[in-house]
């Protein structure tokens, strides 16, 4: 299995990642970077982040099964993992139906994709699966190192741990706004939840399984829902919220820092690292 991710990582869209930022994240004490936004199967960005760092684990969150053939990403995996042993984790997932016209057999597609990764020699410990619902969580337990849930509160983490058992990786993502004004924090965090996720069936179905209602999901999300999905406040308050995932059974939690006008995240990540006790 990929070497330890540590307790905390940083989730960031591929468009906002550079080797220099990876070096900064490593220097702060975070254990991993998760590359978001369906990175391409050539994995060149992951390779550049690994080349620039010495111990940081790089994971994809996630390579989309519909847009990237398994054989393509498998060849890239062997190149990247061979050059950086125990420092790369291939996160894969089926995405969501609204983005794919051929989204007709999602579960079967996941199984077939994992079969192709098996055939290409990708070890179970070198891959993780985007998982929300019970069937895919079970599949992540049986066929991969574990699960990478996205847009989930600690309540889901507890359910996921029960499904995965004690020995599988559980690495949820959680959005973060460092602002002590609740209204300002929600104004910044709500768009990152609303578009596109509150319009995507797999995410809204999962939220309803957790007890959220159509009224909570409508009109950009109720304040209560946004507060559940976007940790905000002082760095210490945000750290406490992230630690709720660990208390619920997560091995690792990926913080997605949201900044005004997409400002550089260096300062905010440094403040968060200090509150987490890793800086």
Automatic annotation (TrEMBL):
**Classification via InterPro entries:** Bact_Lucif_Oxidored, Lucif-like_OxRdatse_MSMEG_4141, Luciferase-like_sf
Q: What is this protein called?
A: F420-dependent oxidoreductase
């Amino acid at each position: 299995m990929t070497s330890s991710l540590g307790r905390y990582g940083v989730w960031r869209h591929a468009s906002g990642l550079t080797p220099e930022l990876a070096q900064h994240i490593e220097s702060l004490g975070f254990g991993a970077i998760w590359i978001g936004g369906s990175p391409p199967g050539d994995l060149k960005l992951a390779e550049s982040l690994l080349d620039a760092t010495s111990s940081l684990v790089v994971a994809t969150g996630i390579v989309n099964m519909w847009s990237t053939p398994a054989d393509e990403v498998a060849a890239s995996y062997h190149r990247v993992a061979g050059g950086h042993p125990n420092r790369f984790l291939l996160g894969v997932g089926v995405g969501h139906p609204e983005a794919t016209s051929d989204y007709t057999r999602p579960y079967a597609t996941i199984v077939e994709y994992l079969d192709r990764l098996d055939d290409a020699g990708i070890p179970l410990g070198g891959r993780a699966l985007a998982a929300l619902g019970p069937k895919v969580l079970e599949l992540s337990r049986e066929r991969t190192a574990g699960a990478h849930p996205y847009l989930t509160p600690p309540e889901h983490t507890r359910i996921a741990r029960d499904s995965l058992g004690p020995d599988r990786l559980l690495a949820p993502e959680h959005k973060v706004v460092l602002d002590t004004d609740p209204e300002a924090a929600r104004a910044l965090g709500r768009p990152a939840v609303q578009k596109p996720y509150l319009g995507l069936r797999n995410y809204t179905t999962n939220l309803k399984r957790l007890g959220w209602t159509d009224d909570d999901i409508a009109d950009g999300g109720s304040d209560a829902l946004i507060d559940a999905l976007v940790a905000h406040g002082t760095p210490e308050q945000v750290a406490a919220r992230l630690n709720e995932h660990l208390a619920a059974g997560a091995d690792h939690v990926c913080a997605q820092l949201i900044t005004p006008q997409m400002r550089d995240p260096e300062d905010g990540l440094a403040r968060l690292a200090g509150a987490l006790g890793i800086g």
